[in-house]
Specification:
This is Plasmid pRiA4b ORF-3 family protein. Pfam families: DUF6933, PRiA4_ORF3. The protein is α+β, with helices and mostly antiparallel strands and about 375 residues long. The protein contains 11 helices and 15 strands. Helix 3 packs across helix 6.
Length: about 375
């Protein structure tokens, strides 16, 4: 890989003399070091398609191994894109040695600076426990960017095209799970069946469940993973959760720290709870394993039932809500109808759900 650095980054790397070098444009990058929230980040931007690879929270010792961190970040970010492992390995092996040089021209530097700005705007999404920012890199690479002469491109799409052309084969393929997620209600059948790449984190799964059920992500959530009927792990979304002791002394971690394939399909029982007030509990079961899933985003393949509105008051409140909507002469009918619409209460629509999954795939 040929990484063309700003003077600021070369100084950080303590590199004074840089060789003249040429590399195939797909394996050539521009890079800069910036400071965000008093922490150092390095943003790499591909010269061919402006795909972004980013690192955050680097210390002095990390700059000494920037070569390996960059290659690891390429691998992890491409894996997050569901690119085949053999394609990733070939990409890295094709130009494994990292060579540093000076920035090429003003146009390349301006484009790199724009990508740095796009990355910086996502500071609230940074993964604080990891230097490699694969999720934010993936999302930043989905932004439309100007490419001159009034042309706009999506760097991720251009990277996919470039990889397919270079390796002369489809690039997507990963293990995936078909999951049946059932909202546990006594009187109503509400469930979704969705295919999810197995390397996705439980935080990714949370976002997917929100989309396929039409929840609005207003409230906290957690996961419980079971070995038979004994909970072995509680995955949480918020720092405050650690202040509350679990009655079973179940270990607690953040839900972004574990991937689905760390526990599935071996663990047969997983529970997801959303909104601890209304307490919407979902059971999750693996119904099928795909060895080579050919998409780079989840897909909902079946489902049944409308999701209750947010803040309806649990299943009892939902039952009362349904009773009013079933009686057009009820004095509260119009108010309840309007309130339901404001809460985006609607019938399950498979096509609409999949449009939402595709539209939001870069945020997962």
């Amino acid at each position: 890989m040929f990484v063309q650095c700003t003077k600021k980054l070369l100084d950080e790397l303590k590199i004074k003399n840089v060789p003249e070098n040429e590399e195939e444009v797909l394996f050539s990058w521009h890079a800069n070091v910036i400071t965000i929230n008093r922490k150092k980040a390095v943003v790499f931007v591909n010269d061919q398609n402006r795909y972004v690879i980013a690192l955050y929270g680097l210390k002095a010792k990390d700059f000494k191994k920037l070569d390996q961190l960059f290659l690891d970040a390429v691998k992890e970010t491409f894996q997050a894109e569901c690119i085949k492992n053999e394609i990733i390995e070939q990409f890295i092996q094709h130009s494994k040695q990292v060579v540093y040089g000076k920035t090429k021209n003003r146009t390349s530097v301006a484009r790199m600076n724009r990508s740095c700005e796009d990355f910086q705007y996502q500071a609230q999404e940074f993964e604080q426990s990891s230097i490699i920012q694969s999720a934010v890199s993936k999302f930043a690479s989905s932004f439309l960017v100007g490419n001159g002469n009034g042309e706009y491109i999506q760097p991720n799409e251009k990277m996919y095209e470039a990889l397919e052309m270079f390796f002369e084969q489809p690039i997507f393929g990963c293990e995936a799970y078909e999951l049946k997620v059932t909202l546990e209600l006594e009187k109503y059948r509400v469930w979704r069946k969705v295919i999810v790449p197995s390397h996705f984190t439980f935080r990714n799964l949370h976002k997917i469940i929100q989309l396929v059920f039409g929840w609005q992500n207003y409230h906290l959530h957690d996961f419980y993973i079971y070995d038979d009927d004994r909970p072995i792990l509680n995955l949480v979304c918020d720092e405050e959760a650690f202040a509350y002791s679990d009655k079973n002394d179940t270990p607690m971690l953040f839900d972004h720290e574990k991937r689905l394939n760390d526990y599935l399909p071996a663990c047969k029982k997983v529970k997801y709870t959303y909104d601890f007030g209304d307490h919407w509990e979902h059971s999750i079961k693996v119904t099928k394993v795909y060895d080579a899933y050919s998409k780079n985003y989840p897909e909902c393949i079946d489902g049944e039932g409308s999701t209750p509105p947010e803040d309806v008051g649990g299943e009892g409140g939902y039952e009362y809500f349904r009773e009013i909507l079933a009686n057009t002469s009820h004095p509260e009918y119009e108010n309840m109808l309007q309130w339901g619409r404001s809460q985006e209460y609607k019938e399950f629509d498979l096509n609409e759900v999949n449009r939402e999954l595709k539209l939001n795939s870069d945020r997962l």
